[in-house]
Amino acid sequence: MTRKKNENFENQAEKKSRLANFPKALFFILAILLFPRVVSAEILTLSDALEMAMKNNLSIQRSQAELEEATAVKKSVRGKFGPSLKVEGNILRWDDSYELDPMDYVVLKPKYASLTQRALDLVLEPIQPIELRSSETRELSLTLMQPITPLFSVYHGYQAGRAGENARTDLFERTRREVAYKTIENYFLLLKVQELERVAQSAVDTISAHVDQAMEFYRAEFIGKNEILTAEVKLANARQMLIRAQSGVALMRSVLANIVGLPVDFDIQVKSVDFEHAKDWNVSLSESRKRALQNRKDLSALTQKAKAAKAVGKISWWNLTPQLAAIGRWQYTEGIMLSQEEERFVGLALKWDLWNWGSNYYEAQAENAKSRQVDIRKREVQNLIRLEVQKCYLAWTSADQRVEASRKAVDQAQENLRIQQLRFKENMATSVDVLDAQTLGVKAKSDHISARYDLLTSIYSLYLAIGESPVLSEEPLKASSLDRAPIGNIDRQAVKESRK
Q1: Nearest CA to 416 among 393, 444, 388?
Q2: Residues with Cβ < 8 Å from 415, sequence gap 6 or more?
Q3: DSSP assignment string, 139-157
Q4: In Å, how far are 9, 192, 245, 347, 386 from 458, measured between CA atoms?
Q5: CA-based torsion, 154, 159, 160, 161: positive or negative
Q6: d(Cα 213, Cα 40) in Å, to the nearest integer?
Q7: Exposure string (b/e) for 90-120, b if CB count within 10 Å is 16 or more?
Q8: For strand 342-351 and strand 84-93, is the pairing parallel, antiparallel, or unpaired?
Q9: Domains present along the chain, CATH in parentheses
Q10: Burial of 407 from C-beta contacts in 10 A (0-12 / 13-18 / 19+)
Q11: Nearest Cα to 365, choosing from 316, 426, 297?
């Protein structure tokens, strides 16, 4: 009996445990359904981040909607080439019918009024009032109109619409590449601040250990109180640096999550990369500028906008001429006496705004001015592109040199710290000397980390400035469907490590 009670108690406890774990299991299942790549992988790789950004980024979705709008506008204009068919109809219920009585229009002279009235009564008495409009009328008409001279305007309107669609297509591709670059940039920035956080944590630990050792020397009266106070100030500064680094990590996680389409408070984790910096960029500055002017989608979008502006200007000038159209109509009428029940006609319709105080003329002048504005803007963008390429190219060469210099500085700072620590143990150096050596070491490590990630980021910024696709391996990234072939060399070993 006791054994059965124990079994029942265990079964009830197991059921309660299952019920308690049900919300957790439900949350885990929903997380897998909503974010399968993130939950299953735990750590987000660069390829995963790019693929999610291409699917979920709001800037890309907005650009896609703008492209769809431009396509719809072009198709709308194309429909104006053919004839238009318009149907009109109405059924009207009047307050009363409208009748015509012949006697209402007979005027009698007073001298013969009585005799004439009797004669008219004999003649017109059989004639009833004529109903010109019944109390209910019905009308139905079909109008077919084919523009003739307006076809010129329609043609140029279609050319403007097609150029607008091409411009939006170029801007859509440009947006995708910008999002890809921002994803790569912020992915590396997150790795960078994470490494800086580890350096700051290491500095706190190292200085804390030194403070403990300095306290022992102080108790032994080997050093003075001022060195202890200096060490504690250095420790406080290191902790502040760590707090700032931790805040930077949290911020960069939110920024990257927003770019790839995740909630900004999502605790995103990224995969670290071990890399040797890239030195090779086998394209000169002049060649880079030349390729940029050939490949930049924002520049080609301006070219398409210039075509659209010129087409609209031609429309404005053509609207100053007479507009001729062919027209045909069938009409059915019921309830109106003076109208035939069915009527048909075909013909030509002419419309010409002969004089409106120069309104159409100045409208055409305004469109020409807009076209010139686009041409001038195009030349401005060409100059800005040349400057942008030069800026990115110089940033790459600068980062490349900084990596070499900072690597040597790290080795020198580590050796200096080792020597100062040995001298301090032998009471040949002060605590301040050790702390200064530690500060130099932290700065050297931070500079080297910044230089390495700045180098990778500068290479991808060059891809964006030149109008080429960012690449993760020997081929362009398939997940982002960016169709341009890569130029130059990047740190391929880092990419392979990031995909492991």
Answers
A1: 444
A2: none
A3: EEEEEEEEESTTHHHHHHH
A4: 66, 14, 22, 68, 16
A5: positive
A6: 46
A7: eeeeeeeeeeeeeeeeeeeeeeeeeeeeeee
A8: unpaired
A9: 38-78+152-316+360-499 (1.20.1600.10)
A10: middle
A11: 316
* Helix, strand or coil, per DSSP, at residue 327: strand
Task: Tell me the C-alpha distance between 151 and 360, whole Å.
Answer: 18
Q: Which residues on adjacent β-strands are paired with residue 452?
A: none
Q: Which residues of 218-247 are buried (b: 16+ CB within 10 A; e: fewer)?
A: beeeebeeebbebbeebbeebbebbeebee
Q: What one-character DSSP code corresponds to residue 471?
A: B
Both tokens assigned to 21: 């774990």
190, 454 contact by CB (below 8 A):
no
10 Å Cβ neighbour count for 127? 10
Q: Which residues are CB-neighbours of 468 under 8 A, at least 6 positions away?
A: 291, 295, 484, 485, 486, 487
Cβ of 331: how many Cβ atoms within 10 Å? 18
pLDDT value at 255 more than 70: yes
Residues 6+ apart with CB under 8 A from 85: 142, 143, 144
Q: CA 492, CA 301: separation in Å to the nearest integer?
A: 32
Q: How far apart are CA 99 and CA 457, in angstroms?
A: 89
CA distances 243 to 197, 200, 236, 454, Å, are: 9, 9, 11, 23
**CA separation for the pair 447, 441 (Å, rounded):** 10
The pLDDT of residue 340 is above 70? yes
pLDDT tens-digit readout, 112-152: 455 555 555 555 555 667 778 888 999 999 999 999 988 88
At 202 the three-state DSSP class reads helix
Kindly tell me the sign of the dihedral angle through the C-alpha atoms of 218, 221, 225, 226. Answer: negative
- Radius of gyration of the CA atoms of the chain, in A: 42
Given the structure tokens 């300095």, which residue do they identify? Answer: 214
- Helix (H) or strand (E) holding 199, with range, is helix 151-219
**What's the predicted TM-score (pTM) here?**
0.70
262 vs 254: CA distance, rounded Å: 9
Q: pLDDT band for position 12 (50/70/90)?
A: low
Distance CA 101, CA 203 (A): 113
